[in-house]
Amino acid sequence: MLEASEVGNTMSKAEFKEVEPQLRVDLVNAQYDLRDADFGVLLFVAGDDRVAGNEVVNRINEWMDARFIQTHVMGPLSGEESMRPRFWRVWRDMPPKGRIGLMAGGIMRLLNENLAGDLSDEQYEHAIDHLEQMQESLVAEGTLVIKIFLHTPAKKQRKRMKKAEGNKDEGWRIDQRDWAMLDLLEESGAKLEQLLRRTSVAGAPWSVIEATNRRYRDVAVARTILNAITARLTEDAPAGVAVSDQLFSPGERQATVLDTVDLARTTDKATYDKELNSLQREVHGLARQARDRGLATVLAFEGWDAAGKGGAIRRITQALEAGDYRVISTAAPTQEELKYHYLWRFWRDLPPAGRFVIYDRTWYGRVLVERIEGFATAAQWQRAYDEINDFEDQLVERGIYVAKFWLHISAEEQLARFQARENTPEKAHKITEEDYRNRERWDEYVQAVDQMVLRTSSTDAPWHIIAANDKLSARLEVLDHVRSGLRKALRKLP
Amino acid sequence: MLEASEVGNTMSKAEFKEVEPQLRVDLVNAQYDLRDADFGVLLFVAGDDRVAGNEVVNRINEWMDARFIQTHVMGPLSGEESMRPRFWRVWRDMPPKGRIGLMAGGIMRLLNENLAGDLSDEQYEHAIDHLEQMQESLVAEGTLVIKIFLHTPAKKQRKRMKKAEGNKDEGWRIDQRDWAMLDLLEESGAKLEQLLRRTSVAGAPWSVIEATNRRYRDVAVARTILNAITARLTEDAPAGVAVSDQLFSPGERQATVLDTVDLARTTDKATYDKELNSLQREVHGLARQARDRGLATVLAFEGWDAAGKGGAIRRITQALEAGDYRVISTAAPTQEELKYHYLWRFWRDLPPAGRFVIYDRTWYGRVLVERIEGFATAAQWQRAYDEINDFEDQLVERGIYVAKFWLHISAEEQLARFQARENTPEKAHKITEEDYRNRERWDEYVQAVDQMVLRTSSTDAPWHIIAANDKLSARLEVLDHVRSGLRKALRKLP
Predict the structure, then answer these.
(1) What percentage of chain B carries pLDDT values higher than 90?
(2) Optimal mutation site among A136, A334, A339, interface B, most CBs of chain B within 10 A
(3) Given pLDDT bands bounded at 50, 70 and 90, which one contains residue A169?
(4) Which of A264, A322, B231, B340 is 20 to 30 A from A142, comparing alpha carbons?
(5) Strand order from edge to edge, sheet including B325-329
(6) How would residue B50 be classed by pLDDT, with cut points 50, 70 and 90?
(7) Which domain-ending residue is among B235, B255, B275?
């Protein structure tokens, strides 16, 4: 989920200067309105970027009215604190109704103590359970819990720190802890992601904010806080429901995970034929090994209408033995399926050992079409991130190879494909009015996809965003991911 | 929580014959009404009594219409099942809306596999997490989850099995697994209780049913199912809220945990003086050790009005150094305290290392007065069992000695004390009209206390039910528990 936030958001000085004054006014006004509200705000700020964490906490205090916000930096436990249960200090410093309590750094401390061996695995597990329970209980009783995680890629941090060390005026800011933390992060990225996933509870998810650019970062943090408080005050988001991640108005530039792919990429037919053959041969060999050694595979395909999911899937199944796979085309649930939990039909079709199941549209419908069309309530689709993560965790723990693909095309390319289909008699039936209706909600889907990838991508069940304006290169890219994913999964088998 | 269910419930043949026909009619009618409902029923039956488990599953199938209930015994994973994630079979066999799915034995299998080393501690922890998440998600999406745990004390099971083995006609029913399971249970009681607590989620708690007497057991099981389905159908208990544990009408006899104490017990003044002195001296010595070695203590006092909590607490504090303890008298929350989560004020007052905090009335107000007076909604007080267990688990994990006392008197004794107080000028102010009003709800309080003790008693934070009709013997009993509890806690220190 962290890597998925690295989309390159920046904000220019001019833009920043334009938005800052109003933002500060809005923040302080929200604080005043909050004073009479029947809920308090518990604001967790953490991150893998210590410098950014410090700066953001300072910035929040600078921009808000210090009388109504209390900041608590979760340093090493003090004498008083270490004599009580770990979360005693969080309860002690809990904001009452009408106030904001800012707690900085706690989650990273938990991880670091475990990595350093100061906290046993059992204690660490218990702490995570308690943290989950505490949040669920606070949310249920009405506290607004806002959680911000600041992410800067380790590489960028190293570069920044080297530069700062060479600088007489800034070098003193960098200490050994910063370098040690970076080493740790690069080794323990998967564990950190797991921690963020497990401590994201319904109604209190982590908002991961890209921290590389200071101006973008500060504005994004401020707006996350502002939106959450405002939505709750105006009852746009009732207790227990988190506000949307949409922080920037359409006029402003906010990058999403979909901006990270290069839609201009193409492959010529000759290269395609050659590479396709070679990839399929390799995947075929790996699939035989998977069957012999009992490795099951789940491939999940999502993407825009007409993005070419079917074609990409066929290029995979061509490489497999007929008895080794099933393709599950997921349509709107039948009357019979509606009698069950929405995950039931996907559980039902899981592959046995050694086999592939390829889902053409998936359980992610809950946070895409069902979210946008209103078939699921806000509480339902927001809860679904946790439910889906838990589902996929169970697959991964069972040793199943899981990969998820979003086939991305531009709106223009989609339109061209719709029109081409309409002009092709045997394909015309594939285009309906609904397809055109869905296009009108393109921007909403972009947000939903961005949030979905952020919340559900993990080292062990990654999302691959595929540039699919060129069908040929998209198919090769998908096959390439399947090949390397299978290889990795086979290596991990006992 | 299991021991707390051992209250000696039985049912005579005559009573059974009287209730059985109507119960069967009601069960089948409920099934028919359920067919058109928009929810399914997931019924887990498990227990530490294998024989009872089998008999109960057979009984449910005998009493209900087999067309609308599917039974799945969670035996060892089959080939098909072992190739999927552990809970795949639960999802596969999930009841649709309108139907009942009975799953037998799964939770004990989880425990046994871990104890036998077939499931690592890490896998066991993950399985519990997934089980929690699954239930929360099912409950949130509308499934009615009913969970019945059949408990028979190991001693009684041994006796029964020895008798059966000697019997030509029944001996073949007993096999090695039964004896092995009993050994296991006696060693791992605390772990089983922990498992039941952790898998009790809001809206889907375990109902522990005393299984020693077959007739009582079967009727209690049937009524648990019937009440849950009926309450949901009639919307007495909306989705996510469990129905009350009240299974028997006042005319019928249902024992509660309060029936297990002998209210007739007395102590004469001479014995009292001697024993009090000796107990206080010992507690004083243990408290000094606790201070020196950093053991913190939390004592929680609840009980009927005028049961003598204050007097019992004073006999403890007399044995302590003034600087080593605080007594927290919990009244209705102040305006200031109402701005926080209900647990906040109790967290705030936790003792530092080496000190005592004695709460005179506690966080259990949530599931007693707040439940009965309607200050907390059903969803709130039902959630509170989990919240309280999690709170106390954090104390125990931090090494704090926790003990909870319910001072029990009869309704007659209470009335006599009220009247005596009214006739004593310096005590008359302690009696108000509210005290008399509370008496009218005596039976409701009995149910609430019974449920509270069942849901929140654990090996590490036990409830002690004190017979307090005789003040002197009550005080000695409390001190005796504190003495042995402190001793045990000191021995456990590293």
Answers:
(1) 70
(2) A339
(3) confident
(4) B231
(5) B325-329, B356-360, B297-303, B401-408, B463-467
(6) confident
(7) B255
For residue A348, give the nearest of B91, B130, B141 by CB distance.
Answer: B91
Beta bridge partners of A149: A46, A208
Query: Quick one: pLDDT at residue B16?
Result: 94
The CATH number of whichever domain residue B359 belongs to comes to 3.40.50.300
Q: Is pLDDT above 90 for B435?
A: no
Residue spans of beta strands (DSSP E) within A106-219: 144-151, 206-210
Residues B269 and B247 in one domain: no
Q: Give the B window 35-74 contacts with A, CB below 8 Å.
A: 40
In the block, residue with structure tokens 């019997």: B167
Whether B196 and B264 share a structural domain: no
Do A244 and A336 lie in one domain? The reply is no
Q: pLDDT band at residue A246, thresholds of 50, 70 and 90?
A: low
Q: How many CB atoms lie within 10 A of CB B114?
A: 20
Residue numbers of the domain that contains B72: 3-255
Structural domain count, chain B? 2
Dihedral over alpha carbons A252, A254, A255, A258 (to 10 degrees)? -90
The verdict on B419 and B436 lying in the same domain is yes
Q: What average pLDDT does the segment B276-281 reach? A: 97
Residues A210, A267 within the same domain: no
Query: Which of residues 404 through 433 in chain A touch B, CB cutoff 8 A?
Result: none
Asked if A141's CB is within 8 angstroms of B342's CB, the reply is yes
My answer on whether A210 and A354 are in the same domain is no
Q: Which residues of B touch A130 (CB under 8 A)?
A: 390, 393-394
Q: Which residue from A108, A109, A102 is spatially nearest to A68, judged by alpha carbons?
A: A102
Residue A468: pLDDT over 70: yes
